[in-house]
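Board notes (copied after class):
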Amino acid sequence: MYNLGKDLSVLALSMTVNIMLGTYNQIGRKNCRFSRKRFLSGLIKAVIVGFSFVSLSYCFEVTDLSSLGITPDMIMNASILLYVGKDIAALAKTLGVEEFLEKRAR
């Protein structure tokens, strides 16, 4: 359970970075107006997804379903990898890396 708690903080951090970069890209780069409703909707979605990953990890730990080949660490690592991947993509947009690569390819 200790690893699950440690992984939870990493997951929360990667989800927070994803929300922050998404907000910045919409407001700072696309010049969209800040929508409190859209922001809260995204925040609620992130909480639901994060809670689902943590809950599934807990279920696999408590019931010892590791015989199926799925462990709590695997579930948490997959969720962290998912959000870190999204963070890297959002950071690339923020820094204009995609635009640079598109121009260079032409």
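Comment from the instructor: The two ends are 51 Å apart (CA to CA). Residues 2-29 form the longest helix (28 residues).
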